[in-house]
Design a protein that fits this description.
mainly alpha
């Protein structure tokens, strides 16, 4: 009976990896260090601050132009620059960082953020009042905000050239 107890104690300590008393045998599996697999995912760097900067510049330009027009300023040629900056700035940042797919995805999201509200405005009433355009404006703001967040938080990663 005593030998069965000793044998079961040795087996249990070997299976659980518990330290056995001196003089007791341990299995090689209990003493071997676990193998480390090589890291297959390269280090990544975040460049979302660049897309946020491009978005911020485009929005600031648009707000400045809107204020200029509201004050009676004459800046119609600049009206094209703000939407183009907002639509193309961040995709260009992705492309400059070598992320071509992320750049085209960003461009598609921005086209949808502008295209969906345009469809809402076209399908809306024939009235030219602000109230009729409100759903399209609200949709554009929400979609643009989501686009900026996804663009900077999810898409703006590139392999780090120097991980250490």
């Amino acid at each position: 009976m005593r030998s069965k107890t000793a044998l079961s104690t040795i087996t249990l300590t070997a299976l659980l990896g518990v330290h056995a008393p001196d003089g007791w045998a341990q299995s090689p599996a209990a003493t071997a260090a676990p193998e480390r697999k090589p890291d297959t995912h390269p280090e990544q760097r975040w460049y979302g601050w660049q897309t946020l900067l491009a978005d911020g510049l485009g929005v600031s330009l648009g707000l400045g132009l809107g204020l200029g027009l509201g004050l009676g300023g004459d800046v119609p040629e600049m009206l094209v620059v703000a939407p183009v900056g907002v639509a193309l700035g961040p995709p260009i940042v992705h492309w400059a960082n070598g992320q071509v797919g992320a750049g085209f995805l960003s461009l598609g999201m921005r086209a949808a953020a502008g295209g969906v509200p345009a469809l809402i405005a076209i399908s809306g009433s024939d009235s030219s009042e602000f109230g009729a355009a409100f759903p399209a404006i609200l949709t554009a703001l929400v979609l643009y905000g989501l686009t900026v967040i996804v663009d900077a938080a999810v898409l703006a990663y590139a392999p780090d050239a120097d991980p250490h």
